[in-house]
Amino acid sequence: MTNRLSNNLQIPLIFRVFLKNRGIEGDEALERFLFPRLADLPKPEKMQNLVKAVRLVVEYMTSGKQIVIWGDYDVDGTTGTALLVNFFRECGVTVTWHIPNRLLEGYGLNIEWFQRHITSSLSGEFLLITVDCGIANEYEISRIKKMGGIVIVTDHHNIPEHGLPQCIILNPSIPTCGFHRKQLAGVGVAFYLAAGIRAELADRELFDNVAKNINLKQYLAFVALGTIADVVGLTDINRILVRAGLEALGCTKFPGLQEILISCGIDGGEILSEDIGYLIGPKINAAGRLGENTLVVKLLTERDRLQAKKLATQLTILNDERKRISADNIELTLAKISATRVDQNKCVIAKGSLHQGVIGIVASKLVEVYGFPALVFSEKELLDKNIVYVGSARSIEGISMVKMLKACSKWIERFGGHEMAAGLTVTAENFAGFSARFSAIAKEKWQEHQISKKKPYDIECSVENLMSDEYLDFMRLLEPFGPGNLQPIFKDSQARIVDSRVVGKTSEHLHLTIRGKYANHKGIGFSLGNRISEVQKNSERVMIYTPTINRFRGNVSWQVRVIDV
Is the pLDDT of residue 7 over 90? Predict the structure, then answer.
């Protein structure tokens, strides 16, 4: 992060206008945004209860008592768990860890696991640290405490209506927390816990002063992965963490991360947020989706490069299987949906005999296809033969999914999540009431959303100008992209298409060649294959687009991602 505005960085006018439209203007604000610094991060002690949590952890570390880490099965939870396991190991402390099986144990703490292990692997007195979960486990935590456990919850999900667990809680969603509204991901909270522990160990000169030699920036690679993959808002703090994390990921020393990058074909170069969103994140998530709950943390904590390669290969195989199952479930779900009803209800609600591990992917696809919030449910038969529907929900920018679910809580057994994504369970007898209520709320929110809806692009700029080296280099400074800092969308009123064809298994995508000043530019319009005839009829088009990186067989180049044409 070297170039500074104080060193006379020239910002192209189009980007000054773009940033001004997003409320970023003046040299000081521009410098903070374009060149975020780790030195500007708030101190760990600002997080409510962190000092208390740190002292408790250090007490267990110095006494040799057992520490158990329990993480969620998604990217946020597994990267946060791996971060802490690696951190404790670097401190010379071995911990026990567990990731629940998504299909058998479900989300959050599972009391049966503790009952099974309390007489074997768990000691009579242990410290439990949750990662990306636990805030809704008031009952389970009370039971664990009776077994001899002391609990620290690290989480970022919204506070449950029934109250907080009686334990030490690190969660920026608590209004009295100094990090409130900072929207840290679960892995971000775990990182701050590690930072607080390192500071305490260094101050007290414990563990042969090893803490002073721990490079915390290397752990930000995990923070970048979890934050981007969990679609968490890119607040000032998250922007700093993720930007530094992308740099750390590109030169990571962790063998597991190195092998994941190689398996995704993005090693040895610059890592962008879309690499995590489209390649790394889905691959890591594949393990949890298919019930392989331990694979990711094993990979991310593996020290032997050869073994890490084997684990990464297993993950690739699982991801291929996940893709197959997802495609089948998407096809099955789309065939049952009435587009007319979706348009009437301003949301998509689908249920059926779907694979529980991929319903989130199906929901995301439905949002992409219809442009409305989507909920997808997998039918599940309980031991007592009752039917429940386990659901995954995805929303669109500007409509909070968790707020909509709160308004339907009367019909929901349990739910949790944030603005863009959530999980929930609805009984068979409550499903009709829930669907009717959610649809009514979706209509209200959609009307509000339409009133505040902005134009479908940020600023006008021709493909010819934007795809220049100068502009593309500046685009990198706008990274990372995500909620709160969406990738800029451009409009070219006179794009000239010199070649067009359809690609994909079912000719669903549109491949374009767009005329440039010195060289033509490749473009891809996902799910725009049905526009081929009108594009070929008139080659001069109004194009809505954004630049994107194309990684093909080891070659990295910029291309145009066509959003509309």
Answer: no
